[in-house]
Amino acid sequence: MTAADVAPSLPTPAAGGPRATPSGRRRGRPSPSERRERNAALRFISPWIVGFLVFTAWPIVYSAYLSFTDYDVINDPTFVGLENYREMAQDPKVALSLWNTLVYTVVQVPLYTIVGLALALLLNQAGRSAGFFRTAFFIPKMTPPVAVGVLLLLLFNGQYGIVNEVLSWFGIQGPSWTTDQNWIKPGLVLISLWTVGSAVIILLAALRNVPNDLYDAARVDGAGFWRRTRAVTVPMISGALFFVVVINTIAGFQMFTEAYSAYFGAGNSTYRNDAALFYVIYLFQEGFQELHMGYASALAWLLFVVIMLVTLVQLLVSRRLVYYEGEQR
Amino acid sequence: MTTAPSFPRPAVSGPGAAPDPTTGAPEAQGPPPPARTRGTGRGPRRRWLRAVVLAALVLATVAFVYPLLWLLSASFKPRAEVFDNRLVPRTFTLDNYVTVWQEAPLALWLGNTVVVTVLAAGLVTVSSALVAWGFAFFRFRGRGALFGLVLATMMLPGAVTMIPTFLIWNQLGLVGTNVPLWAGNLFASAFYVFLLRQFFLGLPREPFEAARLDGANNWQMFWRIAVPLCRPALVLTLLFEAQAAWTDLMRPLIYLQDSSTFTIPRGLKALIDQFGPGGESQWEVVVTASVITTLPMILLFFLGQRHFVEGVATTGSKG
Known about the structure:
A: mainly alpha, two-stranded antiparallel sheet, 1% strand, disordered N terminus, B: mainly alpha, 15 helices
């Protein structure tokens, strides 16, 4: 075998798969050179295969098994059938944490996307200075989420916080963001907008790929700014918008660090906060603080199913709404 | 949109100003635009619009940057003034840093975090590059399906595998050490495999043909040709994972018990518990520790600024 055998796979990314092989020997036994190439590939891929088996496949199977058991790490798991799932249905904290998570995600994802898009549109008009502003917008994204939790407590402090001070300039009496049960989730949503920078960068990149002649055509047709945004911009960047929505929905359902760092303390149950009890926080408490590993596994499976369903729905909806230019992939 | 080496080439679509020069053109030539395009006063109107855009951007910048400046400034204030919301401290003091240094084994925590970060970022970059190369360079039956499986694992929420993974490390007697925080990275990560594969696919084939004629084997072609050509993507992987490893709180919460093994975010959480709202309300300690936790990430950003920004942009276009 020569270079020609192997090298052509590189420049044909789109083919990506078995379709690319010469149709001549599709079905039969692989030839020696095919076998050699496959073995070479598998040697390179082997780290992932081992990792997949040990840290993905086995954990999935084992956590499914654990979800039907009682297990506290010290004693062997005892099989309890559907008991964990039955318990979950009656556990008020499951309902509460699911509700909190849903409310947070449903509010946060659209807001985050809209703010990201608005800032990207502004940046797209900024000309030469766009680079500077883009950097400024991205920096908060580097802040460790634990520290974001700290900033939340400080900036949104009901009495001294700068947020309420700014509100007071406009004659608005700000709420107790960090202690009032009704305002804890809004506070978390708002601080999450502080780290919108990565969405801005993604959307700006998409905006810059929209061909100018589309805008020119729209302008000739007499479309104003809003009309152009609605009829040209949004459809042309719908792929990137969809990406931001999906990624953030999945992240929203797994909200943990900011809320945990601000509102939950180890061995400090007095500060436990119901309004910030997100699903993964409850899962974490059950699994690693109460050592209810079986129950926590059942909780994890419910989350898995919920996220899968939501993502599936989003994918189906996106088929109708998302436009990919010259799409084939 | 799949062409891989999108960041070596400088912003294809040009600076954001690009649309502007063209705006006048179609109206200058050809038939005059219909009257309803509010044609009159275009010049002043433009300038006015620019001013509004600029003002909005400046306002947004203040909102994004101010919290970090606030934090930095507060770390130099005595306790009574932490909440005074002044950007320049009335009384400038370094006492908070001294206090934090005495109250917490900060040097140890920073050291632990550096070890974990370097191992996690280095290992995931090497392993993901190997795997990505396996998918990009060779063709074999079932490649598409196997790569589909790689992508599918990206959709799996971490919470599902969290408990069995803990049990594995527990079985190995490694809970309480930092091994679980980085050892998983020996086995590549789907996201980076995806990212790096895109880059490898964009490489020209000539150097590889030449090398093969010279008798180079697969391994040499990977190390000597593919890796040097994909440096930007590898640096990006390093930076992304370094950030992820440095800032992670959940796994240190799960795996680290003794204060001497803490990473800096886990240590900061311990300080929040001790000095924060549920504890002694010594906010200046929490503030100062937050600065110490955050500053290395800001430095990392400025070291790899271009990589971060261009890299985040590409992740979106590949989605």
